[in-house]
């Protein structure tokens, strides 16, 4: 039984699989596509939504330090991802890497955590998209019915769940459905749409930074690190650490990018470029936007779904012309994040199903479009339900813990694989092994421990549910163990 649980996939066997065993996925993505997919996923909720909430609740203006801490640990994890993505260029990302280094049961655990990560990432971004869309509609004089414009449930600080009186967040459900339709149309079409959106949203962000600089009131940065309230994680240095853990979620994009390795034209060369270049660009944008945002609006007032829109409104007539552009840019930008996260989520279902650990329906690929259509449809239904029912703050914290855990496992897996299979062909090598991967893992673990206890409770519940599914279905249908 123990042997079955920890049986590993052979890397050489994976690399020697005939192309049709990839399920018919089309290798259509160039290096530019991969970089823009990374930016498309990374630049979104972190800038347009989470910055305001994390500044207001945890770090204040010192959220810039939180972003730098997260960026450093992301660079370390990103180098490890780059090595794996070049060495094992198949769909599935960290799940596939774990299968080769730690065995089936731990790969299932990682895959299940990735499902949590992408599912709640898509849902939370859809909620943020809804906030900006409703703000733009109000600006145009269109008032959406409140009964279908917010979460059905909310989670209070005392740990209790309450019904908000609303039916569903309809705009959040709507955008999930639209994005899913694009994904079902094929990866090439999806990448083209994403490229256009990335140009628009990066342009809008640069406009906000450039014109917003002259509206900064430096008194909003005093104190730069607000005094701790006596509660762990509420301002002070513990708030910076908790802020870093929460905004870590903003860097999720290169993780999603790794799941698309099976659709890259030249993954050995292009995956490392896509991961590291997109990460560097986005880290610079995050720090710049946070600096301007907390300079225009006092951090205590930023706990809203659309903080950049609020900053534009507060700047007054001088920046009022920028307001519709910012909101349209945010809407477009968040749409691309949903697109890449939905792409990642469906590819995880596909990869796990291909190994027999989930029903084989998820690994069926459309002959016409070359995409796992069943997995995409299922992902859209579940994501739409969660986005329509739950509030942003609950969803974003769950994404952070899933992301941090995935990054920790990737960093540790690099060290394990260097020891167990030192002679493997590695087109890209992580530098300073084992020091750099172990440091990356340590920083991720520290950030995980900084997250609220309620987040850990939900994570444990999700893990228990995952192992029930594995022992009830996965272990009995595993292709590796049934050979």
Tell me the CATH topology: Amino acid/polyamine transporter I
Shape: globular
Spatial strand order of the main sheet: 1-2
Task: Report the biggest beta sheet as strand number plus sense, adding barrel if it closes.
Answer: 2 strands, antiparallel
CATH architectural type: Up-down Bundle
Content of β-strand: under 5%
The CATH class, by name, is Mainly Alpha
Q: What oligomeric state do the depicted chains represent?
A: single chain
Q: Poorly predicted ranges (pLDDT <50, ≥5 residues)? A: 18-23
Mean pLDDT: 84
Describe this structure in words.
With 483 residues, this protein is mainly alpha-helical. The chain has one domain (25-477): Amino acid/polyamine transporter I (Up-down Bundle), CATH 1.20.1740.10. The chain has helices spanning 2-5, 11-15, 31-42, 45-59, 63-87, 94-101, 104-139, 170-184, 187-212, 236-247, 253-258, 267-296, 307-315, 317-320, 323-354, 373-389, 392-420, 435-449, 453-477; strands at residues 153-155, 161-163. The longest helix is centred in the N-terminal third of the chain and has 36 residues, at 104-139. The protein starts with a helix and ends in a 6-residue tail after the last helix. Mean pLDDT is 84; it is low at 18-23.
Key terms:
483 residues; mainly alpha; Amino acid/polyamine transporter I; two-stranded antiparallel ribbon; 67% helix; globular
């Amino acid at each position: 039984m123990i042997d079955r649980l920890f049986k590993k996939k052979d890397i050489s066997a994976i690399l020697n699989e005939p192309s049709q065993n990839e399920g018919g996925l089309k290798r259509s993505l160039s290096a530019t596509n991969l970089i823009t997919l990374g930016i498309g996923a990374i630049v979104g909720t972190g800038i347009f939504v989470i910055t305001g909430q994390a500044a207001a609740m945890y770090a204040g203006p010192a959220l810039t330090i939180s972003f730098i801490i997260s960026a450093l640990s992301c660079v370390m994890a990103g180098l490890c991802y780059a090595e794996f993505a070049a060495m094992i260029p198949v769909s599935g990302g960290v799940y596939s890497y774990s299968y080769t280094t730690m065995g089936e049961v731990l790969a299932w655990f990682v895959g299940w955590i990735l499902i949590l990560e992408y599912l709640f990432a898509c849902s939370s971004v859809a909620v943020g998209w809804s906030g900006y869309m409703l703000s733009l509609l109000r600006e145009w004089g269109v008032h959406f019915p409140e009964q279908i414009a917010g979460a059905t449930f909310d989670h209070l600080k005392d740990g209790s769940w309450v019904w908000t009186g609303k039916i569903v967040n309809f705009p959040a459900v709507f955008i999930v459905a639209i994005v899913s339709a694009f994904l079902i149309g094929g990866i090439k079409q999806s990448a083209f749409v994403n490229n256009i959106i990335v140009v628009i949203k990066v342009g809008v962000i640069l406009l906000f930074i450039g014109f917003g600089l002259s509206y900064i009131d430096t008194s909003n940065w005093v104190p730069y690190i607000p005094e701790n309230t006596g509660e762990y994680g509420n301002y002070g240095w513990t708030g910076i650490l908790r802020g870093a853990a929460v905004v870590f979620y903003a860097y999720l994009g290169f993780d999603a990018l790794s799941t698309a390795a099976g659709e890259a034209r030249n993954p050995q060369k292009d995956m490392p470029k896509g991961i590291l270049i997109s990460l560097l660009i986005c880290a610079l944008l995050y720090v710049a936007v946070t600096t301007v945002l907390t300079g225009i609006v006092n951090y205590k007032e930023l706990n809203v779904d659309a903080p950049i829109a609020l900053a534009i409104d507060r700047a007054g007539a001088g920046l009022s012309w920028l307001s519709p552009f910012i909101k349209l840019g945010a809407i477009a930008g968040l749409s691309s994040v949903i697109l890449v996260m939905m792409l990642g989520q469906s590819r995880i279902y596909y990869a796990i199903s291909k190994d027999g650990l989930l029903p084989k329906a998820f690994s069926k690929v459309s002959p016409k479009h070359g995409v796992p259509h069943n997995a995409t449809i299922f992902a859209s239904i579940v994501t739409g339900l969660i986005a329509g029912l739950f509030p942003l703050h609950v969803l974003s914290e769950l994404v952070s813990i899933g992301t941090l855990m995935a990054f920790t496992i990737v960093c540790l897996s690099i060290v394990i694989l260097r020891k167990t299979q030192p002679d493997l062909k590695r087109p890209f090598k992580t530098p300073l092994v084992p020091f750099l991967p172990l440091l990356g893992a340590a920083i991720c673990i520290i950030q995980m421990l900084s997250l609220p206890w309620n987040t850990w409770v939900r994570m444990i519940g999700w893990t228990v549910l995952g192992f029930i599914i594995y022992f009830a279905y996965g272990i009995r249908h595993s292709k590796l163990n049934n050979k």
